[in-house]
Amino acid sequence: MRTDLAVIGAGPAGLAAALAASARGVRATLLDAATQPGGQFYRQPAAGLGAGRPEALHHRWRTWERLRDGLAAGPVRVLTDHHVWCVERTPDGFTVHALLGPEQEESVEVQARTVLLATGGYEQVLPFPGWTLPGVVTAGGAQAMLKGGLVVPGHRAVVAGTGPLLLPVATGLAAAGVEVAALVESTGPRRLARHAPALAGKLAEGAGHAAGLLRHRIPVLTRHTVVRAHGEDRLTGVTVAALDADGHVRPGTERHLPCDTLAAGHGMLPHTDLAESLGCRLDGLAVAVDTEQRTDVPGVWAAGEATGIGGAALSLAEGHIAGCSVAAHLHGAAPGPAPAALKARAALQRSAAALESAYAPPAHWPEQLTDDTVVCRCEEVTVGAVREALDLGAGDERTVKLLTRAGMGWCQGRMCGTAVAGLAGCAPTPAKRPFARPVPLGVLARQHPQEGLS
Q: Is the pTM here over 0.85, yes or no?
């Protein structure tokens, strides 16, 4: 299969990029691991579930309708259930390798002249005692269950952590009939107020979420954190406590909240596996791009959360700019994205930077971790084992990994990498992986058959 542009990721950035490029005469192919386009933000329930009003689960539904209808009416080839595990550079461009379907045992290839990475982001979850109990889910996981499966994770929930995602998760669960016992946010109002000028464009959205909290009578505990989850076979409640100005837990402020669900999250991190395997330069934890969303690898563009966490509106603007730039490159013309997209991107990037600063996790969260707290769930590595490695001289994620196996499991450190870095007192670093997801050995063998062996 050949195409001018392979867009990897069918969330807001990927959809905007594919449509913008296609409108300018580019043969675009959109690949995504999900069964339907939309990404996490526009995740849709399966048709068989018979959702009567799916728009009730979403913000900016009209924007999604425009994207969906544009995709249906245009020539963009959409390949869902395609799990991209590698992108190779070739003399003529790139080969995109993807595993098919839920079994992911068969690989297909797409030959492309150019590639646009719209791989999105994933949740950052910091461990705490009891976080592995059944009933503890990520904030995004709870939202995905609601949007994609029309199910709720429990009857009485606490939503906790930090970041703007907690607001729609709390109001969404409440609207679906869940009793939300509290929204526990580690950031305080004063911290947000310091960034008020940059967040002016978010006021309407914030006011809408605030109205939802009031309508559903959801208590909000700011400058609080979960210090422990309780239960034997499953979650029965959580202990929360107040934080002082430096991020330390204030003794004597603990309170118990009975619940059967805890939706916890501490922001998002960019997905950069494919970009790293292609040799793209990173800026911190995000893919570095120029004003046209080009990476430093010729023929590769990136847009959306992979280039920095900023939300759906910023992803749409970046995707549109990237799609226009790809089209200009392939046609040998000067790039011509709409000035509105450039202006929107600049304003939204300022808002994103302000939100990142305002919603930083508590500085001293590792202080609450007991030695028996599991930090790496895949390999069952405890905080105590990590601390022993640090006592032996480990000072970074890689050395801790070598001494404890933390990060060697199925998720390849995506869940525990930030926690290990926090315990080690170092900044998180991107993990260099040859493949973006686990690949069956049979697939690899078929990619490079050995001939002449007896």
A: yes
Return the CATH fold of 2-122+269-337: FAD/NAD(P)-binding domain (3.50.50)
Residue 152 and residue 174: Cα distance in Å, rounded?
10
**Rg (Cα) of the chain, in Å, rounded?**
22
User: How many CB atoms are closer than 10 A to CB 382?
Assistant: 19
Asked if residues 157 and 179 have their Cβ atoms less than 8 Å apart, the reply is yes
Please return the burial class of 175, using the count of CB atoms within 10 Å of its CB with bins 0-12, 13-18 and 19+. middle
In this structure, the number of other CB atoms found within 10 A of the CB of residue 131 comes to: 21
Q: How far apart are CA 237 and CA 260, in angstroms?
A: 6
Q: Give the helix ranges, DSSP H, for 27-180.
A: 61-73, 139-149, 166-175
For residue 440, the SS3 value is coil
Residue 320 to residue 323: CA distance in whole angstroms: 5
Confidence (pLDDT) at 184: 97
User: What are 280-296's pLDDT values in tens digits?
Assistant: 999 999 999 999 999 99
SS3 364: coil
Q: At the fourth CATH level, which superfamily is domain 369-424?
A: BFD-like [2Fe-2S]-binding domain (1.10.10.1100)
- Residue 353's pLDDT band (cuts 50, 70, 90): very high
Q: Beta strand 107-117 with 286-287: parallel, antiparallel or unpaired? A: unpaired
Q: Where are the domains of the chain?
A: 2-122+269-337, 125-266, 369-424
